[in-house]
Amino acid sequence: MSRRSDRAAARRAARIRRAELRLFAAARRFSVALDGCAVEPVEHGGEVMRALAELDAAALRFADVSPARKRRRRRRVRARGQS
Question: What are the respective helix, strand and coil percentages of the chain, to the nearest 5?
Fold first, then answer.
């Protein structure tokens, strides 16, 4: 692989890793808010909805980031007789 494709793969992996961390953090905040809601449901209602909105946004962003791009790479075709 060329240096350019190595850098592109590293950037893609870093983007996916950041999206996974955002998704995990949002899920953790939602579970913490939900646990508090089980004890006192009235006080923590807004917090649960906010955490759920964060979780939803993180999941949508992760879904947008995670699939590999399927663009075909253009190759230069050398003219005949040239090396």
Answer: 70, 0, 30
